[in-house]
Amino acid sequence: MREPAWRIFAAEYNDANHVIQARGEKAPKYVITPLGAKINRLFIVGVLTDVEEIGAEGIRRRARISDPTGIHVVYAEAFKPEVASILADMPIPSYIAIVGKARIYEPEEGVLYLSARAEMAKEVSVKERNYWIIEACKNMLIRINAMKDAMNMKNVTAKQLMELGYPPLVAEGVAEALKVYKDVDIHHYEIMAKEALSFITSGRKEMKQNYEEEEEKIIKIIEELQGEEGASWDDVVEKAKQEGMEREIVDEVIASLMEKGLIYEPQLGKLRIV
Question: Which of 18, 67, 133, 211 lies in the 20 to 30 Å Cα band around 191?
Fold first, then answer.
């Protein structure tokens, strides 16, 4: 049976430090996240922010895909040259969807590096990206509720959680997660889901006037502050205020520049020049 592809935010996936393996010949491995996602395959949608060649003859690529919570690292390996070609040809930034398998690297005991091995890749629209965020939040909230219920049980089992109506994969993952993750910060993940939704639900004001001069000023500020990871949104606002711009105008100008495709947000709260 083909494993389901989880819609999972980068932050939760990258927080994981526990891997289990099913029984049997060629049994799959699963990444268990702190909220109990039991992941063998992933469905990722976000902003493609970087692609680099890492293998011989340009076949293999490593890409970074940003969602509202962080960065997924994705590899296109030799047995999927068509995926490597798609990544190589795709403009940066652009919205991208990836389906792939969990890629687990354990160089030594207690050290775990997680990424994804791409099986399929395609460019998508902002509407499709927004829909993915909504679905990822829905899935996360199911695991949050399951974790809350599990924390109120003694010696919780997957069967107990399934009796409450949770899907088998969620029930199995949550029961396993509680064995290894102590004091899971549920509130942290609730805030994460709220912020991810606000990423697409916050209204954009119409530009009240033409701010060409202010746009040039904001672009220059971002260029000065962006470094390797991007300029902090708050730092950009503060610098602009020091140069005489009002906060409301700064927010309008940043929104306008993003809509024009001149700047983008590689991750929540960071800005970069395209």
Answer: 18
| Mean pLDDT across 224-242 | 89
Q: DSSP of 14-65, one letter per residue?
A: HH--EEEE-SSTTPPEEEE-TT--EESEEEEEEEEEEEEE-SGGG--EEEEE
What is the CATH number for 61? 2.40.50.140
Q: 188 vs 228, which has greater pLDDT?
A: 188
Tell me, what CATH number does 237's domain have?
1.10.10.10
Alpha helices by DSSP H, listed for the chain, are 10-15, 81-89, 126-151, 158-163, 168-180, 186-201, 212-225, 233-242, 247-259
Q: What does the pLDDT average to over 148-158?
A: 92
Residue 219, classified by CB atoms within 10 Å of its CB into exposed (0-12), middle (13-18) or buried (19+), is middle
* 207 inside domain: no
Residue 114 has pLDDT above 90, yes or no: yes
* Strand partners of residue 122: 97
Residue 231: other Cβ atoms inside 10 A: 22
The structure's pTM equals 0.75
